[in-house]
Amino acid sequence: MERAEIHTVKGVMKVDFYKKDAPNTVANFVKLAKQGYYNGLTFHRVIPDFVIQGGCPKGTGSGGPGYTIKCELNGDNQYHDRGVLSMAHAGRDTGGSQFFICHSRENTSHLDRQHTCFGKVYDGLDIIDNIKQGDKIEKIIILES
Length: 145
Hints:
It is a single chain. By secondary structure, this protein is mostly beta strands. Helices cover 12% and strands 32% of the residues.
């Protein structure tokens, strides 16, 4: 099982990836993380009881890695629940590096099968609630078993 640790200024979130349900999205995120792409980027969009969003190199929500990836919406785990990691995009098949982590199910269920869910925080859920806009992602460590 492939896992990651998202180190932030507020603490560490430990993530299980949905490799079976979103293999290309997971591979893209892992590749960027291993390259250090996310190191020092901010959570540029924080909406209480909705999501925390990061992965924009510009810090504005308008940047990406210079390419796009296809959405993967047909897997079993395509439900936006508390702690779920999902790809942000500006329309179907336009995601790249930006991702968000859900605060709760009640305000994110409309995103199901619209944005690719590719993992879930299994330890450090309290960190999600403590992240403020502008807080940094110090680094993302990929743990391979």
